[in-house]
Write a structure and sequence with these properties.
Cyt_c_1A/1B; Cyt_c-like_dom; C-type cytochrome; mainly alpha; metal-binding; about 170 residues
């Protein structure tokens, strides 16, 4: 069963494995140690860790949205409208999952007849100005906490300006 020979073999195997690991550690230190004869040489390849990238990220320039809106292309906004068309309609009075967006620019935030708005918009006396729409489209849940709109947001300010220009041109 369990005799001294089995115990001796087990201890010997453990010591042998430890010896191999220590020998491997010693070889690795000799190869990669910085105090060796090659320590004065420069590194052949430096990996960018992003320390300089953080400094550049802080210098993001804020763009004037009114300037973007003035230069926006409504035709590009029509292409972007396809994302909105899944839940909204451009036909006056035809609501979908979301309220219709015909005449949305300049309309009251909760002023669509026959649509049950979230509480955040139902009693809101404010109007949808291009600036308000820009902030809402960029981050709906951040702009109006409690909104039922499931859209994650449009990151590009140029795209938002084009979409708002397209929506504004629909009721002319």
């Amino acid at each position: 069963m369990f005799d001294t020979m089995t115990l001796t073999k087990t201890v010997g195997a453990f010591c042998g494995a430890l010896l191999i690991f220590l020998l491997g550690k010693w070889v690795a230190e000799e190869i990669y140690h910085t105090d060796g004869p090659h320590s004065s040489l420069e590194q052949a390849y430096v990996i960018d860790t992003g320390a300089d990238a953080d400094a550049g990220a802080a210098e993001v320039e804020e763009v004037d949205f009114n300037l973007l809106l003035a230069e926006a292309n409504p035709a590009q906004g029509e292409r972007l409208w396809r994302q909105c068309a899944a839940c909204h309609s451009l036909e006056d009075g035809r609501n979908g999952t979301g309220p219709h967006l015909y005449g949305v620019v300049g309309r009251g935030k909760g002023d669509v007849e026959g649509y049950n708005f979230s509480d955040v918009f139902a009693d809101n006396p404010d109007v949808w100005t291009p600036e308000n729409l820009n902030a809402f489209i960029a981050d709906p849940r951040g702009y109006a906490p409690g909104t039922r709109m499931a859209y994650a947001g449009m990151r590009s300010a140029e795209d938002r300006a084009a979409l708002i220009a397209f929506l504004d041109a629909q009721d002319e």
